[in-house]
Amino acid sequence: MYDPTVARLTYRALLGRRRALILGALPLLLIAISLAVRGLAGADDQTAADVLGGLALATMVPIIGVIAGTGAIGPEIDDGSVVYLLSKPIKRPTIIYTKLIVAIAVTMVFSAVPTLIAGFILNGNGQQVAVAYTVAALVASIAYAALFLLLGTVSRHAVVFGLVYALVWEALFGSLVPGARTLSVQQWSLAVAQKVSGGELVTSDVGLTTATVLLVAVTVLATWYAGQKLRSLTLAGEE
Amino acid sequence: MTTLSIDHVSRWFGNVVAVNDVTMTIGPGVTGLLGPNGAGKSTLINMMAGFLAPSTGTVTLDGQQVWRNEAIYKHIGIVPEREAMYDFLTGREFVVANAELHGLGAKAAQKALATVEMEYAQDRKIATYSKGMRQRVKMASALVHQPSLLLLDEPFNGMDPRQRMQLMDLLRRMGDEGRTVLFSSHILEEVEQLAWHIEVVVAGRHAASGDFRRIRRLMTDRPHRYLVRSSDDRALAAALIADPSTSGIEVDQAEGALLIQAVDFGRFTALLPKVAKEHGIRLLTVSPSDESLESVFSYLVAA
């Protein structure tokens, strides 16, 4: 199911270009802001939760997810170099599954790790806030990577759609329309984080069971469908 | 023995018919797929390579369906026309990756790189390669698993004459080894130099098929039109029309030239300078007026 060569090509494509700069810039920004907040306001659990919830989980994780998820396959399909993967006796779902693993790993490294660091800077993991949001970032990384990998497979405008979903749906729409939150990767991951922290600082609008079922369902379905789409991917000629 | 069969294949994109009811069989040896730009060659090759589903009809390799059949790529090597190819890798890394994707190792990759004579630049990044070098590395990546069918889309585009010769030699060798090699081109001379067998497509239709000499004859037997300017057009016209190789001459006053229709191409081209010399006429312009490839093709389609 996992092809190390496909993985190597994907890692190098993801981390070798300008994309790596963007991937690195956001975590650095989060850590810089955390340092500033800690320096100006001191250690405060609520502030730590606000920064990690509002900035790390609601903004940074989905954006990193968009970059890694769509970037794991979109550019190859766009420029046609995916032909070198498709002209091999490798099952298409294997290509998707491998790229998913890479996208998840990259999203986790560039979002969960800085979230943990930022959490420790902000309040030294008081009330388990840092760990809870890190778990949320890890869980969200999986679902985002799967969703955005699918988007990268089906659309040439995957980055735009991905950012619209991440920023408009998750951040804006979700905060205005309560029902929209049920269908939000962020809320699902918060439900898991809530269980971890056990406190009142990390809360979700969705129950843990619902959240887990939806997380698994979205990840599995998106991956399966991406594999199917890749099987029927049409490479148009240049004529 | 590998045979690629295209059976009543059509492909349309919306309202546009790119390939229209094409049936052909490609066997061992080198076959040229000839047609003007936009004739549907790439669409046809993409269907042969399993990258595009035919709207109707089937493409099979030794009886096996090509579309949605990953296992078929054990037998097919593909050299796409598009340039994009993991530019951040070195040539060697790229070919090794392609070998690994076939379940092979660095040894197979090295052999393929040697076949295309790219060992000298194998450790340079592909981004720094010239078009001809890219083409050769693409070729190596298509050869790593010793495929029995090799598909090449416009492989000579952008190559200099020496690289072109090298690639032609290589393809000829592959054909001699009994592999089935199909390449597309819009340049008649390329196809003529290399292919034993040609398939001509024009406007999505299969226009001709067979030995290139027969098709070439069809092309050369047709009347040729020339535009000629000389120091004495009327004297030249009178001398030429006496010969049976010329079927008609028109004096174009506006252009200040003769429009000559020749029926015997070989004889006419030998006659013209001879007649001019005998009559002390200087030839100022001799240009074939309908030699563009499109007119050759349209003539073929009508034949």
UniProtKB/TrEMBL annotation, chain A:
Pfam assignment, any one: ABC2_membrane_2
Residue ranges annotated as transmembrane are: 20-41, 53-74, 95-122, 128-151, 158-180, 206-226
Keyword flag Transmembrane: yes
What are the UniProt keywords, alphabetically? Membrane, Transmembrane, Transmembrane helix
Report the PANTHER family cross-referenced here: INTEGRAL MEMBRANE PROTEIN-RELATED, MEMBRANE PROTEIN
Q: What is this protein called?
A: ABC transporter permease subunit
Q: Which organism is it from?
A: Streptomyces edwardsiae
From TrEMBL, chain B:
Show the GO MF annotations: ATP binding
Instruction: Cite a single Pfam family from the UniProt record.
Output: ABC_tran
Which InterPro entries does the record cross-reference, listed alphabetically?
Answer: AAA+_ATPase, ABC_transporter-like_ATP-bd, ABC_transporter-like_CS, P-loop_NTPase
Tell me the keywords, alphabetical order. ATP-binding, Nucleotide-binding, Transport
Q: Residues in domain ABC transporter?
A: 4-228
Q: Which domain of life is it from?
A: Bacteria
Q: Does the keyword Transport apply?
A: yes
* Homology family: Belongs to the ABC transporter superfamily.
Q: Which PANTHER family match?
A: ABC TRANSPORTER RELATED (PTHR43335:SF11), ABC TRANSPORTER, ATP-BINDING PROTEIN (PTHR43335)
State the protein's name: ABC transporter ATP-binding protein
Please report the organism this UniProt entry assigns to the protein. Streptomyces edwardsiae
